[in-house]
Amino acid sequence: MNSAGETTTAVAPSPSAAERLAMTELQLDAMAETFNLSLGEAAAVFSQLVQEEIELSVPTVELLPRAELVERLEIMQDSGSQGRLCSITQRFDAAGAFHTDTMLIFPEDDSLEIVRRMLGDEATAETISELEQDALAEIGNIIINGCMSSISNLFRKEIIGTLPEVVINDSRTLIMEHCTADDVLVARIGMHLAVHNVSGFVLFMMDIPSIRSFVGEIEHLFDI
Amino acid sequence: MQTLIADHIANAIASGLLVLDGGGRIQLWNRWMVEHSGVAADEAVGRLLNDVFRGRIDQRVMMAIREAIDFGLAALMSHALHPSPFPLHGYRSAGDRLKQSVTISPISGQDGGRWCLIQISDVTALVKREQLLRSQTRQLSEKLKTLTHAQEQLRRNELRFRELARQAPVGIFETDLFGRIVFANERWQHMVGHMWDHNRVESWYDVVAVEDREAVIAQWKDVSVAGGRFQSEFRCSNRNSMRKFWVSVDAMPVRNDDGQTVGYIATAIDIHDAKETSLRNAQQATFDSLTGLYNRTPFNERLTRAVETSAGRHSFALMFIDLDRFKEINDTHGHEAGDLVLASIARRLRRLLRVDDTVARFGGDEFVLLLADFRDERDLARVAGKIERAVSQPINIGTCHVELGCSVGCSIYPRDGADPSSLMRAADARMYEVKQGRRQVGDDEPAELVPAPIEHTTELLR
C-alpha cells in the first residue's frame, strides 16, 4: 500500500505473500477446493446460458504481490493481438467479514470471440460495441455471481454484490487503478469453448484483513 | 417529504424503475413503467410481477430477482442475451416488444429486510444503430474482401507479366507518353548494355546509335503525338561493348479506360545478322564487288530514268569504253593482275566524272558512262580524251607496270535513239567501229592510240 513496501517487494527476495500471511499448505489447498467448487457452479450456469459445453480447468490459487500479478497478466496480454485486457469487475461485501473486488479477466481478443460466438455474430469490427460490452458484462456477471453465491452458500454468509463493470485496458492500468491492496488472491481458470480456447483469470482482490477473514472462513469450513 | 421527492424523481426518470419487497410484491412502479406496460401504478403496486405480466417474463429475470433478494447478488441482463425480458412496448403502441437492458440490484427495504430494484432501459434505438453499423461493417468487409481479391489477381497478373517479360527472347520495354522508360526487361537491358535506374529519367531512344537517332526521335515524336503505332528498324549501340547492332522495334500504344494513350509497350528484336546480310545482298545487287561501280541493272535503271526525265527536251550522252589488250594482261600476268587493272581503271574513271554522271562496269573489261549534261559534242570529245589519257597511264600490278588503251563509243539522246536499248546499241556499235578501225591501222602502241580530240570526237560519233 505504501511505496516503501513495494520497493522492498521488488528488490529483495522477500517472503512470499502466503508466507507473510502465514498460510499453510493446507489452507491453500482448502482455498483451491473452495474456488474449484464455486467456479464449477459458475461454469454450469454459464454453460446452460450459452447452450454450449464450456469446460473450466481446475483453478490454481495463489497469493501474489500486486506487482507480480501485473507481470503475470502482461504475459497473457502479449498473446492477444491488441495487447489489451478486458476485465469485468464486481465488488462484494460480506458484512463484518471481508470485502473483495472480483475481477474476471480475458485478453481483449478472446473476450470479443466469446461474446460474438454467443451472439452468433461474425467478428467483423475490431472493437467491441456498446451492446456487446453489455453482453460481456452479463457473462462476467453470471460467472462471478455463480462463484460468489457458491462461496456465500459454503460460508453460510451473506455477500452483497454490485453490478458488473467492464473495463478494457492494459494490465498495468487495469490492476493499478482497481486494486489498492498489496496482495491479491488469484484464482486462475481456463475456459475452453468448443472451437476456441480462452484463458481467463478470476482475481479476488482483498486487503490483508479481508484475506485473513476469508482464510478464517475457510478454516472454519474445512475444520482445520 | 423525502418520499415525495423520491416519487417525483422515479416518475421523471427515462427508464423503468421497479421495486419489489422481500416477498416479491411490487412497491414502486414508476411512470415509465405505466407508459410502457399499459398497467397503472395503483393496479401494479402490491401485486406479484408474474401476476401483473401474466407470466410473460423471462425466467432468468425471476431467478435474478430471487438471487438479489435471497443472496444480495446484483445481476445484469444484457439485450444481446435477453432481448426483451419484460412484455413492454413503445409509448401508446402495441407493436413489437421494447428491446431492453435490465439490471437487478439488492437494496435495503423500508421494513429492514432486503428488497430489490429493477431498472429497465429501452435500447431499441441503440440496437437499431448497432445493427446498422454491423451491416455497414459487413458490407465494408465484403468490399475489402473483393478488393483484396482483385489486388491479389492484379499482383498475380503483374508477376505473370514480369515472368513472361523476363523469359521472353526479345527485348521488351515500356515507356510513358514522352518515351521515358518505365520498365525494361532483362533481355533489352542486356541487348543495349544498360541497366535502367528507376530513379533516373531516361528516354528509350537514348540507346539509338548516333547516326540513326535524329530520324528515330523525329519518327517517334510524330507517331506518339498521334497515339499511333511505332515501327522502325535502326541501329542501337551497346553501351558496354560499343557494338552497333540493328533492331526492329514495334511499339503499341497502351490506353487507359477512357481510351487515352498513356504510354507504349515495345518489343525489340535483334535483326542485326539478317539486316547485314540483306544490306550486303543489296550492295552486291547494285555494285560490282571488284570495282565498287554500279552493275548493269542499276545503271539500266538510271538510264531509263534519264530518258524519262529528259523526255526529248534535254540531251545526255552514253559512252561505251572497252579496254584494249586487257585479255593479254590477264593471260600474261594472271587474273589477280587483271583485277588490279580493272579496279585501277574504275578508280580513274570515277575521278574524271562529275557528280551527276554515272559510271558502271558491264562485266569483263567493259565500262559504261552516263553523262547527264553536256554543252556540245566538243565537250564529249574532251571527256573521251581525258578517259583515254587516264586509261593509258601505266598501272602498277605489284610486280611491274602495265599499259593498255581503250576504245570509246558514244551515243547521244535523243539524236541516236529515243529509248535506252537503242542508245546502248548505238554507243556499242560506235565503240566497235573505233576498235575495228584501230586494229585495221594495226596501231598497237598506247601512246599512239590517243588521237587529237576533235578528230577523235568526229570519229567517235560518226
CATH topology of chain A: Chemotaxis protein chec
Helix share, percent of chain B: 40-55%
Shape of chain B: rod-shaped
Largest interface in this structure: A-B, 30 and 26 residues
Total beta-strand segments of chain B: 16
CATH superfamily of the largest domain in chain B: Reverse transcriptase/Diguanylate cyclase domain
**How many domains comprise the coordinates of chain A?**
1
Write the element-wise H/E pattern of chain A from the N-terminal end onward: HHHEEHEEHHEEHEEH
- Beta-strand portion of chain B reads 15-25%
Output the radius of gyration of chain A. 17 Å
* Protein structure class of chain A: alpha+beta
Figure out the total of helices of chain B.
15
Helix content of chain A: 40-55%
How much β-strand is present in the residues of chain A? 15-25%
Q: Which CATH top level class of chain A fits?
A: Alpha Beta
CATH architecture classification of the largest domain in chain B: 2-Layer Sandwich
CATH topology of the largest domain in chain B: Alpha-Beta Plaits
Regions of chain A with pLDDT < 50 over 5+ consecutive residues?
1-14
- Arrangement of strands in the largest sheet of chain B: 2-1-5-4-3
